Amino acid sequence: MPRSFRPKxxxxxxxxxxxxxxxxAEPEGPPLADIVVVSGSRIExxxxxxxxxxxxxxxxxxxxxxxxxxxxxxxxxxxxLVAQNRQNYAQDLQxxxxxxxxxxxxxxxxxxxxxxxxxxxxxDGQGQAATFNxxxxxxxxxxxxxxxxxxxxxxxxxxxxxxxxxxxRPSVETAxxxxxxxxxxxxxxxxxxxxxxxxxxDASRFDTDGYRDHSAARRDQAQAKLTFNPDANSKLTIVAxxxxxxxxxxxLGATWATFQRxxxxxxxxxxxxxxxxxxxxxxxxTRKSIDHQQAGATWExxxxxxxxxxxxxxxxxxxxQYQAFSRAFQAPASHSGGVVDFDRDFYGTDVSWMxxxxxxxxxxxxTVGVEYGRSSDxxxxxxxxxxxxxxxxxxLRRDEEDVVSNxxxxxxxxxxxxxxxxxxxxxxTRMKVDVEDRxxxxxxDSGGLRYSRTTPVAAILYKLTPTxxxxxxxxxxxxxxxxxxxxxxxxxxGFNFGLQPARSTHMEVGIxxxxxxxxxxxxxxxxxxxxxxxxxxxxxxxRTSYRNAGKTLRQGGELSLTSEFGSGFSSRxxxxxxxxxxxxxxxxxxxxxxxxxxxxxxxxxxxAWKSQGERFGAxxxxxxxxxxxxxxxxTEIPAPGYAIVNARVNATQQLGGWRLRQFARVNNLLDxxxxxxxxxxxxxxxxxxxxxxxxxxxxxxxxxxx
Length: 706
Fold this sequence. Notes:
Blueprint: H1 7-23, E1 36-37, E2 45-46, E3 53-58, H2 59-63, H3 72-75, E4 81-84, E5 94-97, E6 112-115, E7 118-119, E8 137-144, E9 157-163, E10 171-179, E11 183-194, E12 197-208, E13 217-231, E14 234-249, H4 256-261, H5 280-284, E15 287-303, E16 306-322, E17 339-359, E18 362-382, E19 385-386, E20 389-390, E21 396-416, E22 420-437, E23 447-465, E24 468-479, H6 483-486, E25 502-515, E26 519-531, E27 534-540, E28 543-548, E29 552-564, E30 569-582, E31 601-610, E32 616-625, E33 642-655, E34 658-667, E35 675-678, E36 688-690, E37 695-705
Parallel strand pairs: 6-9
Antiparallel strand pairs: 1-2, 3-8, 4-5, 6-7, 8-9, 10-11, 10-37, 11-12, 12-13, 13-14, 14-15, 15-16, 16-17, 17-18, 18-21, 19-20, 21-22, 22-23, 23-24, 24-25, 25-26, 26-29, 27-28, 29-30, 30-31, 31-32, 32-33, 33-34, 34-37, 35-36
């Protein structure tokens, strides 16, 4: 076991978290039993009675003692999920669920992202967690396992963000936070409700010099949310979001030798004879600019227990990215250049009807609906040099229009009796990809692809006692290639029209138990078998091509424990064990090789305290992960396992109409050096992305309620 992995640290925390309830005084307050979720069932449902693995991250965990910049800050407390801050705001977070999504070179794929009922993933499955507004988040729901297939293509897991509704008297708030490496953030918000209309307004600016060399970033975000209740049975919600990042620096990955020398350092450009010690990122000024806006509306109408729900949304995303390709690599006429520039329009709708009827002494809830989505990219590619000057937009090498659309009818039903509950669902996905090539100097790459798949889900739950539920579920799922996975073939030339969707079969058994008055345990065992797994064929300088492999196998277990006990103490443990392997040899990859980017185990453990009235709070938390292989053959040096310890304190004061909050946080308290994430399959072996050593954050906020 690598020296950087310190199991004794974790064992101490886990032991304290799991044994303290037996030693504590009589529990205080209500039990953590019946948390309401909508993921999985699409209606309000107690998570304890849902035959699926679903965890909820509440507003306090998202808001208190965090800068609220990256969803990974809160998602680390969820079993089955690996959410890594790559220290690279040009490429967004790296999120995987039970191994799905780990190979993504940027953004999130393999995991469905949804915010306030509106997809944050495009029709091809690619999503951006950076569009989540964490400042006004009420909760995040994370669904894993077979029930994820009910959300269609690329649903190895589902992450749903719900922002707060405007309630009560008007209030305004400002929050300031700062931290290591020049991180600072200013947030302004207002909320309230007047008559039947609630409103939430939020705007923030985040700046950082970056932990890694050439990783500075500025992120501006804004959100407006309006809710309107014309009567007790109807509700209209309108949400608008904006995200802007101008010239966000991309530090790229590093080789193992470079990481060992300096985890902050970038890779030296060995071809640069004029400035021998200049890095690739510096020479090409690798960077990305993003301008993203979207708006959506949801209408809910209740007819007794029946319900109609209609959602419509649309938006625009503009991106220009400067990548690190050498001049020699760009020489072939078939190559599309080192500057990616696209202007994307997207829109969609989801219409569903839920009917509730008494059947056979129980309650039958049936939902039927159809979801439609479309994105259209006006995309160009150019050389990233002019003459001998790099990092500039040069000659045009690519010009095309890419259109992706999906149509997904679905049906879902649940019968709930006194002790038994049966659930079933069926979704049929049709995805279309059309490419119109307008740059014909290197041939015509126009064409199209059609993918379709039906994904059934079935589950059963038995209430053994009022505080102990057993369940089993199964489903079929699939992952069609994203647009970015189709862009390049293994030779780097032309669209890869030969890629096929990965098909998977999911099975899960689980137990949900309430122990004592305020301890909840959720545990699950699962297995996923996949055919035609999409894997990295070649990756270099930000450009990645893919191929279909043979069979893969994922087997594992998850444990989630949450407990509140006497004197204000609480604990949370999230443990995952995962065996993710290639179940069939292909190329140079042997049967039994581990899937890259997927740790065999990871753990979150926390011991927290809060005073009566929640005026003060403190916590000690630890995050641990096993080693991670960066490529399919497992022959390259894996990123070693690690364990880090974080500490936080927070305070709250109420002074008349003012509510004041402060927090301080120290991450990686013991100053461990470790690899935070890997770039899977990088051809130049620049796999490793270093994580910060000991770092700090401070924050203050002031809210005034009129």
